[in-house]
Amino acid sequence: MSVKVRFAPSPTGKLHLGNIRAALVNWLFCCQQGGEFILRIDDTDRERSTKENEDLIKTDLNWLGIHWHDTFRQSERFDRYDAVVEKLKADGRLYPCYETSEELDMKRKIQLGRGQPPVYDRAALSLTADEIAAYEAEGRTPHWRFKLNVPSRIEWSDKIRGFVSFDMASVSDPILIRGDGSYLYTLPSVIDDIDYGITHIVRGEDHVTNSAVQVQIFEAIGGSAPEMAHFALLTGKGGEGLSKRYGAMSISEFRDDAGLEPMAIISLIARVGTSEPIEAFSSIDPLIEGFDFGKFGRATAKLDPDELEWLNTKILRMTPYADLKDRLEGIDEAFWNAIQPNINKLTDVKDWLSIINGPVTPVIEDADHIAKTLELLPAGELTGDSWGEWTGRVKAETGVKGKALFMPLRQALTGQNHGPDMGVLLPLIGRDRVTARLKGEAA
User: Fold this and answer.
1) Could you tell me how far CA 141 lies from the centroid of its own chain?
2) Confidence class of residue 334 from pLDDT cuts 50, 70 and 90?
3) CA-to-CA distance for 231 and 205, rounded, in angstroms?
4) CA 242 vs CA 145, 171, 238: distances in Å
5) Domains (ranges, CATH) in the chain?
6) What is the mean predicted confidence (pLDDT) over 331-352?
7) What is the CA radius of gyration of the chain?
8) Which positions ≥6 away from 171 have C-beta within 8 Å?
């Protein structure tokens, strides 16, 4: 069987780490199996869906390296959904209900007060023609529920959760069409999965009950449910919900504001909630090769977004110049190799360039000592050997050595307490700026 999976975001907002986890798990599995990855845009909510959000979703996925084989919008398939609805009505599987949200809420409260499960009582099935006419005269429009086969059990072997069994008598007949005629997620998703030949549904465990309901909808339409895998949901590292700090930032914010590398996000999200340790990967290939549903845990997956900074640093410090050359405008390999051990984000390159080109305000604590070092600066053009020659002279002349020798020179020339090898920076700063900075001038 050729694997075919889908990722189905709604263009009503921006992608965040939770969304991307669903996309990534599907994509890793698909790539490992040599299958197809479908991007389905769930834009049936026509009021809240925007083209801007759809475009941003695609930008985010491409930036992360998650590429689709085919894509479509649900808003282009309403004729198909409408046709299936008419069949389900004719078969007696869709029925109109006229209760308001307040009336339904009251029913649930009464049931809970009696110690009963809050399952819809199917009162709408007993409505007479006169009652329906009265409701419609009030201006009520029906919402439509799918009539589940009960009593029955829905069972499947979940690739992550193992054996799953649902007593359908404990589940309300799901609403498939709202009172305003718009579709909820449930029905269009099933129709699309059938039409596009989806073989595996891979999503969060909050959809397990939906999956049980959808199994019966698949059967009612004449299809069969794909295989399923439901992974644990993400929380913050302390078990709290995903706030702005704990992973609810959008992918575009991680990219544009935080300046993170895509593989930092991929490295974290691919391993969180699995039995494998979080590691920095500069290529996605090992993650594809090592993908295994059996490595996913049942416990809630705890996300520590602070690890993104650590992963980002490790990835940049292990990435060769050739892989970043196109993004390092005007930076040669020697300079990159010099600053790479001090890089946490690629934007740090600009900071070091500004330190070389100035202006920099020198940090000088002992002006007499720094003046003496200027006298000992080697003549002529400064080269890669100049730093060693210069510090050797200063040591011989003043007796200063170690940190007491190197730190004052670094502070005077860069205004920093740490940084790349000064032997590389010195010729890049150049004699004129070196001289001016040693004199205490901003240059």
Assistant:
1) 39
2) confident
3) 5
4) 33, 28, 10
5) 4-74+187-231 (3.40.50.620), 80-177 (3.90.800.10), 236-322 (1.10.1160.10), 333-438 (1.10.10)
6) 91
7) 31
8) 119, 148, 209, 212, 213
